[in-house]
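Re: duplicated header lines in exported structure tokens

Our pipeline writes sequence and tokens for each protein into one text file. With two proteins the header for the second block appears twice in some exports. Here is an export where it did not happen, for reference. First protein block:
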Amino acid sequence: MVDVNKNIEKVRLSKGITRKFVAKKCGKTQQWYWKVEKGLIIPDAVNLQLIAKALEVDVKIFFENKLNDTLNTKLA
């Protein structure tokens, strides 16, 4: 099973982007975005797209089983 919330956080950290930046780009509060990364809120498809756009990645990356390998390949 894929932990989408953890993958979102991994992508954000790998790009050196703050939670505040992503939240602002999505038009959401920092608290909302923090809850997404912690798995307390499960974002719908629209919000996943907003997060992906803010992080400048394809939304599919959040569903990768082996994200560390993918990050090394796609984001390098």
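Second protein block, exported in the same file:
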Amino acid sequence: MNAIISTFSNVDQADAVRAVLVVRPSYLQTAFDEIKKQYGSIDQDLDSLGLTVNKRKHMQDMCLNENAPF
């Protein structure tokens, strides 16, 4: 993360990037609360995006693979 932030010469830009890259529990909770309010559940939200159970399983397997490219 520091390598990304160091590419910004402007302190305000670096602070903005840092805010986006940092995971804060309050940010996640706000997102989860909004998803529940609008869709009823995370599963229903993902369904609305076209992410079927099979697609989600495939993505999960890819992300948990120790050879994943990220």
